[in-house]
Amino acid sequence: xxxVSVSSSAISQVDYxxxxxxxxxxxxxGKVYDYFGVPAALFEGLVNAPSVGRFFNDxxxxxxxxx
Length: 67
Description:
Layout: E1 4-5, E2 11-17, E3 22-27, E4 32-36, H1 40-48, H2 52-59
Antiparallel strand pairs: 1-2, 2-3, 3-4
Helix pairs in contact: 1-2
C-alpha cells in the first residue's frame, strides 16, 4: 500500500500493512514511527476521521508499541 496524505497539522501521511498490522505515521516534524498490532479498522478510522490528530491521540498513541 502507498502512503496516504492526510489533512492534519501534526500528521502528514499514514500507511498500513495489513499482513503485519503495522501502521506507519509520518509527522509534520519529520519523524516517522511504526505502530505494531494496529487493527485495520483503526487505520480506516484514522484516514476517515474528521480530526486525524485527535483520532490518533485517542485511539493509537500510547495504545500500541512504537518504534
